[in-house]
Structure formats: C-alpha cells, structure tokens
Specification:
By secondary structure, the chain is an alpha/beta fold. It is built from eight helices and eleven strands. It folds into two domains: 159 residues, Rossmann fold (3-Layer(aba) Sandwich), CATH 3.40.50; 66 residues, no CATH class.
C-alpha cells in the first residue's frame, strides 16, 4: 500500500496557482524527495498534505484515506512535519518538556513521562536537556527537539522541509544520520523537500523534480548517482551540484 498518493494536485494562494497537475505516489517505508529551485512549490505540497494550504484541487491520500481541506487532529497521529528552522518552530518560552508534553496532552495520552524520556533518548538528547529552553540549546539540539516532537505521537510518516539547511555542515551530517537510523528503527516513510542532491543521494530512494509548480521527472537515486536523467532541467540541477553524487 502507498503511504502518500497525490493525483492532479493544483494548489492556490488566493488567485495565484502554485502547483500544476502534480501526481506521484510514495510507498510505505520509502524515502522520497522533492527537489527544485526555490519558489517551485515544493514546501507548498507538504503544507497541503498537512492541511496548512487549504485551497487546492485534485486528490491527496495518506494511507489510502483522502485528506480534507484543513487540519485534522486524528491525522496528526499518522503524519507529522519537521520544519526548516529549528529555532523558529519552537516556542521560546516553553521548555523541551513542555514542547513534548503538549501533543500528548492534546491527544489525551497518559504515559507522558515514559514517552518523553523514550523519544529524547531515540533522537540522542540527554535527559538533562528536558527542562531547558530553546535559547539554551545548540542548533543541532534544537532540531533534535523538533524531531522528537514530530515522533512523540509515533506517526509512521514524516514530512521534512529542508530539515538540515539551517544547520552547520558538521551538524547536518549528524541529523542526516539520525534520520537514517530512525527510519530503520521505526519503519518510517519520508517525504523530504530539499535542493541538496547529495542529501537526496544519502537519504532517499527516489526523487521528483519540480520546476515552476510542474513535475518534470520522477527518477531513482541510482540514476541520480549516475547523472542519468531524461529532462534537461534535472541535468541543470545535477550540474549545479557539482556533477558528482556519491
């Protein structure tokens, strides 16, 4: 069964059309990337799946269930999003404990202490950070809190919106290794937005290339490593990355 299916998806902000006839599917347990230049509509697709871009036509299905045009609290237990800026996505006056407790309280989950300790350990956060505030953490530690918050309800699907682009290069590697480990341990499905083709090569199985709101190519990571593409725009992205993907 597919974890995510998009069919002829057109997304609008007001009267402005952002995406045009986007269709692709992601298998359960797959790691799939959306790549393309800034403003091409990649992040908007993630927002539509989460119910944060309510004006769209077409079909969005998650675990074979059609998505509504809005936020669905039941859906939150299946699918969560990790945002680009770890500092901006955390409340500055809430401790790590408060941040991780909030979704558990909303969903009336009782074993909060056990879940918080377990998820902190799974993302590599020492329990001594539990009552610290975001400004007391490094960028990498903040992103681990964001990932822990996304995992606290034990979803099987994560939407990753350039989750390492705001981090130092050395920290990026740590977070990417963490994503790979979590996927293996928890059987997660990833849909990741990025412009970084080496990141796609490291973490993903397939990628869809988006240009000006249109899907131009879907290909496998082996084709990416070989530089073997059908569309000229994908070749341009590959050349801009340096042309060698390991």
């Amino acid at each position: 069964m597919n974890a995510i299916e998009l069919n002829e998806l057109d997304i609008f902000y007001g009267d402005t059309q952002i995406t045009d006839n986007i269709s692709f599917d992601i298998k359960q347990g797959e790691s799939f990337a959306l790549v393309g230049e800034s403003g091409s509509g990649k992040s908007t697709i993630l927002k539509a799946i989460m119910g944060l871009a309510p004006k769209w036509n077409g079909s969005i299905k998650v675990n074979n269930v059609a998505r509504s045009h809005g936020i669905d609290y039941d859906f939150a237990a299946q699918c969560q999003m990790v945002f680009q800026d770890p500092y901006g996505s955390l409340h500055p006056r809430k401790t790590v404990d408060a941040t991780l407790s909030e979704p558990l309280t909303i969903h009336r989950i009782s074993d909060q202490n056990e879940r918080i300790e377990q998820v902190m350990q799974s993302v590599g956060l020492d329990l001594s950070f539990r009552f610290r505030y975001p400004h007391q953490l490094s960028g990498g530690q903040r992103q681990r809190v964001v990932i822990a918050r996304a995992l606290i309800l034990e979803p099987k699907i994560l939407l990753l919106d350039e989750p390492t682009s705001a981090l130092d290069v050395s920290v990026q590697a740590e977070i990417l290794n963490l994503f790979k480990k979590l996927r293996k341990e928890r059987g997660l499905t990833y849909l990741m937005v990025t412009h970084n083709l080496p990141v796609v090569s490291f973490l993903c199985d397939r990628l869809a290339v988006i240009k000006a709101g249109k899907l131009v190519e879907v290909t496998g990571v082996e084709q990416l490593r070989q530089g073997n593409f059908k569309h000229a725009y994908t070749q341009e992205l590959y050349a801009a990355s340096g042309g060698v993907i390991s």
